[in-house]
């Protein structure tokens, strides 16, 4: 039997944040293998089933990130699994670029409080961990704000409005998510500014909506679906004993559209 733990925070306000990518992977594995995540015990949401031909318990700790070890310790003790070979922990990693996955059989917590607490409760760091790259935080941004932050069009709109009100001159905006960039477009249009004539805008997500903004949005396309599939496949191979630690990289693609003057200059 294998215990597969995805780290995250339980409240709705943390859904779809970088820090909750572990929860997202567990949900994907559960869906792929028809496992119902409906049982609450061991301070976690749990689902049991077959993954890659092996019995598996999927775990989403409900303790909040910094106390994840309490839940993991309880699950390990109950199912009597050897954590050195039967425990897999999935977490976010700001030291890896978006699109990178790193799998190791042991190692430090790397500054991740969830992993730190698990190591403390287990008394060692010899367990399989899958670290999902979420990208490095922007300069001068608080790390907690970065990993817990939500990206929305409204946030981009309000932030750009404040920038315009400050009267600080600027000729370009770069948003760490397309939703923010789309909100910024709205604020600039309301202010009577031309994009890209007055201000160039670039986003980072490659979401479909970026193709339909006016003007269409220059963005970085992330291979999110491919990344999720690769992670699931690697987990299955680890469970089946066909793989050890691996480091996989997916490159983001710059998609130049009408929202930057570079597009006009290269036509």
Overview of this protein structure:
By secondary structure, the chain is of the alpha/beta class. 34% of the residues lie in helices and 21% in strands. The chain contains nine helices and twelve strands. It has an eight-stranded mixed sheet with strand order 2-3-4-1-5-7-6-11, with helices on both faces. The protein has a two-stranded parallel sheet with strand order 8-9. The model has no long low-confidence stretch (mean pLDDT 84).
Topology, element by element:
Blueprint: E1 2-6, H1 21-32, E2 39-41, E3 44-51, E4 54-61, H2 68-79, H3 83-86, E5 87-93, E6 100-104, H4 113-122, E7 128-133, H5 143-148, H6 153-165, E8 172-174, H7 178-190, E9 200-202, E10 219-221, H8 224-239, E11 247-249, E12 253-255, H9 261-265
Parallel strand pairs: 1-4, 1-5, 5-7, 8-9
Antiparallel strand pairs: 2-3, 3-4, 6-7, 6-11, 10-12
Helix pairs in contact: 2-4, 6-7
């Amino acid at each position: 039997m294998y215990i597969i733990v995805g780290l995250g925070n339980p409240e709705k306000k943390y859904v779809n944040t970088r820090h909750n990518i572990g929860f997202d992977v567990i949900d994907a594995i559960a869906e792929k293998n028809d496992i119902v995540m409906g049982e609450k015990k061991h301070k976690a949401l749990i689902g049991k089933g077959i993954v890659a031909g092996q019995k598996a318990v999927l775990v989403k700790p409900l303790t909040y990130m910094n106390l994840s070890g309490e839940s993991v310790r309880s699950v390990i003790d109950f199912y009597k699994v050897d954590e050195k070979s039967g425990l897999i922990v999935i977490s976010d990693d700001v030291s890896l670029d978006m699109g990178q996955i790193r799998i190791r059989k042991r190692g430090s917590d790397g500054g991740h409080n969830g992993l730190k607490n698990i190591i403390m409760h287990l008394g060692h760091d010899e367990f399989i961990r899958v670290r999902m790259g979420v990208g490095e935080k922007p300069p001068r941004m608080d790390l907690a704000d970065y990993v817990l932050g939500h990206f929305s069009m409204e946030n981009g709109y309000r932030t750009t409005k404040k920038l315009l009100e400050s009267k600080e001159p600027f000729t370009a905006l770069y948003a760490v998510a397309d939703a923010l960039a789309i909100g910024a477009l709205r604020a600039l249009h309301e202010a009577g500014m031309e994009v890209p004539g007055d201000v160039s805008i670039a986003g980072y997500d490659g979401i479909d909506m970026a193709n339909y903004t006016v003007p269409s949005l220059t963005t970085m396309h992330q291979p999110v679906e491919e990344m999720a599939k690769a992670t699931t496949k690697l987990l299955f191979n680890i469970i089946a004993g066909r793989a050890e630690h691996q480091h996989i990289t997916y490159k983001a693609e710059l998609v130049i559209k009408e929202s930057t003057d570079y597009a006009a200059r290269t036509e």
